Structure formats: C-alpha cells, structure tokens
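hiii so um. not sure if this is the right channel but i have a protein structure encoded as tokens and i wanna go backwards to a sequence. like what aa goes where. can anyone help
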C-alpha cells in the first residue's frame, strides 16, 4: 500500500503540473485590455490577481514533484534493503501526502 500511495502522489503531481503548465502558457500568450497610448495589449500573466492565484499553484506543482521523487527513492530503498525499521515513517508520509496532493490537485483544477 505504501508503494501505491507513493504512486498516487506522483500521479497527482503530474496532473497538477499539466494544469498549471496549460494555464501559464495560455496566460503568457493571451492579451487583453488595450493600452491607453496605443501600444500592445497587456499580457494576462502580468495581472497581479492572476499571479496571486497561479504562482502558488506552480510552486505546489514543483514541491509535489520533488516530494514524489523523494518518496519513490525512499520506498525503493526500504524494499531493496529489507530493512523495515523506517517503514512506519514512510507509511505516515505517504498517507498524509496522498491526501494533500490529491485534494490540492482537485482544487487547482476547479480554480483553473
């Protein structure tokens, strides 16, 4: 079960990364609200309201990716060494992180 939960954490981080990547690319390309002096329109990503919603999700996507990789390495080392002394900590980490990453990914998809 620890391995399955670790896989769920990695899958949630990938889903969040894809959603944030699409939103960031769209925001960088999309322009709106023409300038007053006749110049080019402002990129959507330049709006502070969007940045305050998008950038924390981008940071979360990276954090979830790194913690998923760390969990994979940790779980594989435990299984390869047949040393289960740290298994309770790995179990607790995967239980909490599975819940955190999947709920954060679901909220992100609802926001975007």
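sure thing!! here u go:
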């Amino acid at each position: 079960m620890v391995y399955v939960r670790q896989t769920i954490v990695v899958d949630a981080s990938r889903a969040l990364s894809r959603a944030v990547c699409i939103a960031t690319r769209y925001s960088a390309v999309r322009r709106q609200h023409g300038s007053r002096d006749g110049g080019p329109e402002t990129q959507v990503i330049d709006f502070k309201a969007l940045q305050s919603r998008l950038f924390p999700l981008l940071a979360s996507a990276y954090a979830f990716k790194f913690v998923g990789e760390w969990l994979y390495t940790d779980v594989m080392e435990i299984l390869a060494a047949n040393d289960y002394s740290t298994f309770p900590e790995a179990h607790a980490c995967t239980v909490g992180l599975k819940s955190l990453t999947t709920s954060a990914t679901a909220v992100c998809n609802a926001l975007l």
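oh and Helices lie at 2-29, 48-81, 87-111.
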